[in-house]
């Protein structure tokens, strides 16, 4: 699992990183709130450890911004121990709060507790009717598609194609396979039909459709959704 550690003190970030890497976690690092938000947009993050006092964008404002788009577990980290700071952080959406200096074993225990709670009760990834790779998420129960927390609107056929590929992320489907599974019939010339729909989907889910992050062509074989 990926844990983002955000603190303007590089020594603290490195120290926390060492503790958590020893537990088998992958660490992503940032040194202010703006950098943290950029990391979340570009990577799959399962938990955030966020300092409060930082330059450019502090942890309070960053937490507010993050909570507008997703529910990643977030532990606030601060040298302040007053109850008012703790209450403010929790009211803004933090899941837990730990003060500096901290016991590494206590931090690890809190991280594991939040991840366990998230994957057991709150993570959409644990539901069989939700398909996710990176920031692309399909909730088949609600029939919604989101990219980095922002909903995109697809036609029914586009939705079916994207769901097929995302549910089987990493697997390459030929054009013929896609056509037969979506239209439930054989076709002698499905290239144009499938290609047009793929192009339309890319225009809606990709930042740069010409250099797609998710929906990719495997030349001479077919299409796939990248497993991230």
What does this molecule look like?
This protein starts with a strand and ends with a strand. Residues 122-127 have low confidence and may be disordered. It folds into 2 domains: 2-122, Response regulator (Rossmann fold, 3-Layer(aba) Sandwich); 130-225, Winged helix-like DNA-binding domain superfamily/Winged helix DNA-binding domain (Arc Repressor Mutant, subunit A, Orthogonal Bundle), CATH 1.10.10. The protein is an alpha/beta fold and 228 residues long. The protein has helices at residues 10-21, 33-42, 59-67, 83-91, 104-122, 156-167, 175-183, 191-205, and strands spanning 2-6, 26-30, 47-51, 74-78, 96-99, 130-133, 136-139, 144-147, 150-152, 215-218, 222-225. Strand 4, helix 4 (83-91) and strand 5 form a beta-alpha-beta unit. The protein is built from 8 helices and 11 strands. The strands form 3 sheets. A 5-stranded parallel beta sheet has the order 2-1-3-4-5, with helices on both faces. It has a 4-stranded antiparallel beta sheet with strand order 6-7-8-9, covered by helices on one side.
Break the fold down into its secondary structure elements and pairings.
Blueprint: E1 2-6, H1 10-21, E2 26-30, H2 33-42, E3 47-51, H3 59-67, E4 74-78, H4 83-91, E5 96-99, H5 104-122, E6 130-133, E7 136-139, E8 144-147, E9 150-152, H6 156-167, H7 175-183, H8 191-205, E10 215-218, E11 222-225
Parallel strand pairs: 1-2, 1-3, 3-4, 4-5
Antiparallel strand pairs: 6-7, 7-8, 8-9, 10-11
Helix pairs in contact: 2-3, 6-8, 7-8
